Each structure stands twice: as structure tokens, then as C-alpha cells.
Amino acid sequence: MKKHLAGLLAVCVLLAAPSAAAAAAPRASLPDIEDEVMCPTCGVALNQAFSPQAERERAFIRAEIAKGRTKDQIKRELVSEFGPRVLATPQTGDSGFNWAAYLVPIGAIAAAAVAVLLALRRWRTRPADEEREPAELSPAETARLERDLSQYDL
Fold it and tell me: pLDDT per residue over 89-129, tens digit each?
């Protein structure tokens, strides 16, 4: 009985192994790559370009997918074929403006987080309404309050 269970377990492991390998390296697809690369002629993302050059680039990507290449391998091939501007990421070596595409959102998120933390800290250190001392009314304010309340039949 134990031999049968061990054999069954071995068969299950062997059947699960190819699916685990397939899950580790997902197959590249054209829509997945198209939105991460640019058309060198149009200067827009490949999924929005309709020029003859964009069609040649799509054909190149399809051929690479047919060869079984991964997404990263295909992107490296595109860079070697069309240059680094084919990637839809800011080229940080060119100018400070391209660095801003990365740094400004990070700075804005950090500033917002600091503002929220300061607001929470201030809110927590502020005494609750019931803990505050009631403000003393001046004699003129007390007389006005009594006059106003006397108008109502309480």
C-alpha cells in the first residue's frame, strides 16, 4: 500500500513540475510588450502607433515571441535593433528633465506622507472637547445670553 502511495505521489510531482516551470517564466505577448516600447518614427507607444515602421516593429516582436523569447530578451533585442529610445521609459542619462519623471512623483508622495503624519500628530496631541476648560463669559456676554434666553419659554 505504501509503495502505491509513494508511486502516486511521484507521478503527481512529475505532473506538477512542468506547470511550475511554465508559471515561473510566463510567455511573452504582443499586447504586454506593445505598451512598454515606442515607435521610433512616431514617438508614441507602439500600441498607439499605426505607421509602417510600427508594423515592422510589431512583426519583429511577433517573430521573437514565436522563437520563444521572454519579454526582457525581446526588449533587449529591440534596443539593439532600434536604439535605447525604443523603450517607453525616461532616458536618465540625457538630461535632468528625464530624471524629474522619476523623482517628482516620489517627492510628491513623500511630501504628502509627511503632511499626513504631521496632521495626525497634531490631531492626536490636541485635547478632546470634553477635556477643555469652558471659556469664561464676560459680564456683558452673560447679560446678553440671559436676555436672549428669557425670550424663550423654557
Answer: 766 565 666 677 778 999 999 999 999 999 999 888 776 65
The residue written with cell numbers 509503495 in the block is: 3
Over residues 33-46, the pLDDT tens digits come to 888 888 888 888 88
Name the residue among 60, 62, 106 with its Cα closest to residue 79: 60
Q: What pTM, to 2 d.p., does this model score?
A: 0.46
Rounded to whole angstroms, how far apart are CA atoms 61 and 71? 10
Q: How far apart are CA 152 and CA 154, in angstroms?
A: 6
List Cα–Cα distances, 48 to 30, 43, 101, 133, 150, in angstroms: 13, 10, 21, 65, 75
The secondary structure of the chain as a DSSP string is -HHHHHHHHHHHHHHHHHHHHHHHSPPP-HHHHHTTBB-TTT-SBGGG--SHHHHHHHHHHHHHHHTT--HHHHHHHHHHHH-GGGBSS--TTT-HHHHHHHHHHHHHHHHHHHHHHHHHHHHHHSPPGGGSPPPPPPHHHHHHHHHHHHTS--
